[in-house]
Design brief:
296 residues; alpha+beta; 3 domains; 5-stranded antiparallel beta sheet; 3-stranded antiparallel beta sheet; 8 helices; elongated
């Protein structure tokens, strides 16, 4: 199972992330352990291990008896145990040792044969455990900002979230995914412009604010529209000034272009331009006309 992390924004349920639902291992093990113990796969593995254990005991018994035989001969021959060879054995003792060795070799071959299928049986046991885990899993309780999703929903929503991420990286358009599967563009904080008799603007406050067909986001205004809006805003600003404020601002602008014209003349003279004063005066006069027109 999968879960979605959600948050409420302007009465809309937004998905912020998706992950697999976390299994409670303790509670789950309590359920699947007895089921696994009774499964044919577990019984097959246990049976094989028990048989291997029995044959390993036969190996140990045969080797123990062989060592005892060596010990007896060592005592009879009065020779150190590590010096005893097959030549120290009589016919019956050799026959006895041969039977011990044959018993050990048979048991070892039986162990080896049983061990061949053990990896396959263990694999089947692991697969059975996974099957039981998937069908009997107990999950931790969902948090306050979590909801359960089906696998198909999780896959669909993950693709959408990835798409929205790429969209934001390439266009800076922020899309949000609703729990319903629908998308909403987050224009909050963005300024939109609409033109009728003049340009009007508003800043989007809520995700649920509807955008009119003829409204233009500030990010998508073309150069002409930006210039037109800037002129309108400047005209409105000037209308809001008192006559005294307007005259003060006008004089400040005149002083500014005068200073700029002085700098221009000096630069041109340094460059040995013959009509430096005339060029500076012409520029000053042109800018002065613009100021007079603006503040008339």
């Amino acid at each position: 199972m999968f879960i979605a992390f959600i948050k409420q924004i302007d009465n809309l349920t937004i998905i912020t992330g998706i992950c697999k639902q976390v299994i409670d291992p303790v509670a789950t093990e309590k359920i699947i352990d007895p089921l696994l113990a009774e499964s044919q796969e577990m019984k097959a593995v246990k049976s094989r291990i028990e048989k291997i254990g029995t044959y390993n005991k036969n190996v140990n018994n045969a080797e123990k008896k062989a060592m005892q035989l060596f010990g007896n001969i060592s005592a009879i021959k009065n020779k150190p145990l590590n010096t005893i060879t097959i030549d120290d054995f009589d016919f019956n003792q050799k026959d006895q040792l041969s039977r011990y060795n044959n018993s050990r070799d048979l048991a070892l071959s039986q162990v080896k044969e049983l061990q061949k299928d053990l990896p396959t049986l263990n694999k089947k046991l692991i697969e059975k455990r996974i099957e039981l885990l998937e069908s009997n899993a107990v999950y931790f309780e969902l948090g306050a900002n979590q909801v359960e999703l089906s696998k198909s929903q999780a896959e669909e929503f993950n693709l959408k979230l990835l798409e929205y991420q790429h969209c934001f990286e390439s266009t800076k358009i922020k899309k949000l995914l609703l729990l319903s599967g629908e998308e909403v563009i987050d224009y909050r904080g963005k300024k939109f412009y609409q033109k009728s008799d003049k340009w009007y603007s508003r800043t989007i406050e809520f995700l649920t604010d509807e955008i009119e067909v003829d409204e233009i986001c500030e990010d998508y205004l073309d150069d002409d529209q930006k210039k037109e809006i800037a002129k309108q805003l400047e005209d409105e600003r000037l209308l809001g000034l008192s006559q005294q404020e307007k005259q003060q601002e006008k004089q400040a602008k005149i002083n500014q272009i005068l200073n700029e014209s002085i700098v221009m003349r000096s630069r041109l003279e340094i460059q040995r331009v013959a009509n430096a004063l005339e060029q500076a005066q012409n520029w000053y006069d042109a800018e002065l006309i613009k100021i007079e027109e603006k503040y008339k």
